[in-house]
Design a protein that fits this description.
With 389 residues, the protein is of the alpha/beta class. Helix content is 41%, strand content 16%.
Length: 389
């Protein structure tokens, strides 16, 4: 962002709402944190969060009380009321990453509840869904908050993190395209790693020096396709091993399946890593057979480290809408197809395919720069200010 950039005529005071602010949590949290970091040198950024795990010197942080851990829907209501009260005056733009009714900019990180709950329901099926909704305080809360969040309003914009999400917002929720912007996640830089760096990363993580290293990252093992990956791994040569990173995949939970498949000496559980660089450096291939991901930030991050990726098709994972099968990634049409996943891993690890995909992956990742994406977000903020004037 240069000094003569026309978007910087006005330094804005922006409130950012996110229950968790962290660079080591899920993709949505990392998106929010990275965007705030890139906007802070040019605007007055105030973050309102309940769990602040990452801090930047140019960002002002406001601790939001954690009203209750359970039920979550009650805490969501309390978070919405508290942040509405604190940001109702004094800010040029309120940017929400949460299910709140206020916020000039609403970044949508998950598929809308209304879409998942009601689309393709008819007759008695639709009636029963409405009945289930009306008798559940939890479901009713999420539905009402979402309705308020996504309603048409002058000076309000929805931000989709991927093209499939934009399509859902446009068609299923009948939003006009001019009120929807596409601003996907980005990266700060690309990285290549030497053979020596790869070996050192494996040593630091306690991994074998020999063999091919598969990497799986996620906080919801079932949704991110870990069971299918374990079944595929059992059919692959024994010199291929798997590193599992994430908070929702404790070793005890999967020990029985791992033992039944005879994979005890080929699985490495690493839990949550504050810095994923070691994992990407050690890996030969990212495997992401997710069943539901609005974007898939881990795929972009791996590609930025020249790690080829196997990823579910765009009806399952948003980033795939921008990828080219067999060029910069391997696109899985059915993430539950164990044999297809096995074949994809084998072919992706073949030396010629692997080298070509690695080069194309890092080249594409280099086009997804946070600098340009922050400019797009900044332009949207100025659109909000103009429409509210």
């Amino acid at each position: 962002m240069t000094a003569d950039n026309p978007l910087q005529k006005q330094r804005l005071r922006v409130a950012v709402l996110a229950r968790i602010f962290s660079t080591s949590a899920g993709g949505a949290e990392r998106y929010c944190a990275s965007l705030a970091k890139h906007l802070a040198p040019h605007h007055e950024i105030h973050v309102f969060a309940q769990d602040i795990r990452t801090e930047y010197p140019q960002v002002v942080f406001h601790q939001v009380p954690l009203f209750c851990r359970r039920p979550r829907w009650l805490n969501q209501i309390a978070f919405a009321f508290y942040t509405w009260w604190k940001t109702r005056n004094g800010f040029d733009v309120v940017h929400s990453h949460e299910n709140t009714w206020h916020g000039d900019v609403q970044t949508i990180h998950v598929l809308p509840f209304s879409y998942l709950w009601f689309v393709n329901r008819h007759g008695w099926g639709l009636f029963l869904k409405y009945l289930q909704l009306l008798i559940s305080p939890r479901l009713l809360t999420y539905w009402v908050l979402e309705k308020l969040r996504m309603r048409h309003q002058q000076g309000r914009f929805l931000v989709a993190v991927s093209e499939p999400v934009k399509t859902v917002l446009n068609i299923a929720l009948h939003h006009k395209l001019e009120h929807i912007r596409l601003i996907p996640p980005g990266i700060d830089a690309t990285h290549t790693h030497s053979s020596a760096e790869k070996m050192q990363a494996r040593l630091d993580l306690g991994l074998p020096m020999q063999g091919k290293c598969l990497l799986w990252v996620g906080n919801n093992a079932t949704k991110k396709g870990l069971p299918t990956l374990l079944e595929a791994l059992a059919q692959l040569p024994k010199d291929i091993f798997l590193v599992i990173v994430g908070s929702a995949s404790p070793e005890n939970k999967w020990r029985s399946q791992v033992a039944a498949l005879g994979l005890e000496d080929r699985i490495y559980f690493k839990g949550v890593l504050d810095d994923m660089t070691l994992a990407y450096t050690a890996a030969d291939l990212l495997v992401h057979p997710t069943l539901e991901d609005t974007f898939g930030m881990v795929v972009l991050e791996a590609m930025a480290h020249a790690v080829p990726a196997i990823v579910s098709a765009d009806q399952y994972c948003g980033i795939s809408a921008d990828l080219n099968h067999l060029k910069n990634a391997w696109i899985l049409q059915d993430p539950l197809d164990t044999n297809a996943l096995k074949d994809a891993i084998e072919k992706s690890l073949e030396s010629n395919n692997h080298e070509a995909m690695s080069q194309q992956a890092i080249a594409w990742a280099g086009t997804q720069d946070w600098h340009n994406l922050a400019l797009a977000q900044e332009a949207l903020y100025h659109d909000v200010v103009r429409q509210k004037a």
